[in-house]
Amino acid sequence: MDTPAFCFSFYWGGEPVIAKDFRINEEIRVREVRLIDSEGAQLGIFATKDALHLAEEKQLDLVEISPAAKPPVCKIMDFGKYKYEQSKREKEAKKKQKIISVKEVKLRPNIEDHDFEVKAKNATRFLKDGDKVKATIIFRGREIVHTQLGQKLLKRLAEHVQEISLVERQPKLEGKNMIMILSPKQDN
Q1: Contact at 8 Å (CB) between 45 and 30?
Q2: Residue 47 near residue 31, CB atoms below 8 Å
Q3: In whole angstroms, what is the distance from residue 92 CA to residue 94 CA?
Q4: The whole model's pTM is what?
Q5: pLDDT per residue as tens digits for the range 80-113
Q6: Which of 62, 78, 145, 166 could disulfide-link to 55, CB 3.0 to 4.6 Å?
Q7: Which domains does the chain have, with CATH numbers?
């Protein structure tokens, strides 16, 4: 029974990994294939054994690139070189990715000025590193009655870092915490 070439997706260390499974040379079990040569020109429909013979003459591999087509599309190429170039492209794409994490700065409604400056300096550093900042005001006991103090404090923090950040989410009370999210400004 013919099993089609599938694209499997699984998780490795929390990140999805795509593994492409190509059938090559003798693994291709169909009678006829649409053949493309190594330069990309279409040669037409060939019997699989004839296409395999052509690939062997050029000392290259016959690779099934579109198994769902009728007849399946195969290309004559150096499969080892193709896999190497594919892995290089994936590594380059991974290098260009920027992973944005969320850093948290916790404050209390009755924080002293110096402590606020230290927290604001940390938030500035996180934003300059390209991370988002989650500013949290923690209310304890009867402090929850004075939520306006928390809003005032978060507004003060937003003004302190306004040159390098944008308020992504306005201050909002969630249980006994008030949360605001700041994101770094995009450099144009």
Answers
A1: no
A2: yes
A3: 5
A4: 0.51
A5: 888 888 889 888 888 877 777 889 999 999 999 9
A6: 62
A7: 7-94 (3.10.20.80), 102-184 (3.30.110.10)
